[in-house]
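WARN no homologs supplied; continuing
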Amino acid sequence: MKRKTTLAIIMILIAASGWGIIGVFSRPMAAVGLNVVQVTFVRSLVVLAGMTVLLLIKDKALPRVRLKDMWIFLGTGLVSIVFFNVCYFLTIERTTLAAASILLYTAPCFVMLMSALFFKEKITLQKVAALVLAFVGCTLASGFAGGDIGLGALLTGIGAGLGYASYSIFGKVALKKYQTFTVIFYTFLVATICLFPFAGIPAIASVLAARPEGIAPALGLGLVSTFMPYVFYTYGLKYVEAGKASVLAFAEPMVAAVAGIVIFNEPLHTKNVLGILLIFAAIVLLNIPIGKGAGEHE
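OK structure emitted
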């Protein structure tokens, strides 16, 4: 079990890295004229198509779930994908990217509290210390330097954090009954169906026909920054506590900061470096065996 736990931790870190380079693909999609709802819909559709093909090849038939369990996938699809994305993009429109990032990464706090409530996971000093280190590191790495945040941005930002956190909770419940691929398939099926009426399919087709350079980023966003991370993160939830997994996901802003510096030539400041180091330190701290309860699920 220890080997599986170690592999799960590595997969969660890889997932966070995939999420961390979302901007590499989403920015070119926005540049060709797609709005945030359309980008989210294309992202969900690509994942759904890829997962459908994979499942048909693997099992020759799409998996079935019990009707009484559909509430779980309404949670992962509607709350964790649609609600989260809408809240996050609204926050970006109302405040700075740095402030939006900080509000989003209230998520591990919610996960830790909900995991203690629903799964009886222990809130240890080690977890809290790692969470504080990671949150401060996220603040520095993102370049957030204070400033006023309006009530609207605050509410949608916290909503984004709750939506983001909910996948660790709903996903953990789903994995007790279904396989990783089944969970992801129904998550993005629900998300795609919910977004369909608002996406403007003819407009998306028109934009991509006129600007075909947006197709490759769309595939990259769907496959590299969504399909792969959700497969890896969902697998990781099988062997790692939800609270611990959410703190490990702080690798995402660390990767995002590095990607911004390397790919988009964003300025590198001392506080950015310090923030990246603090997030790295939090990840290391979270995985140092301390006492009897250090190796959950081992």
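The two ends are 5 Å apart (CA to CA).
OK
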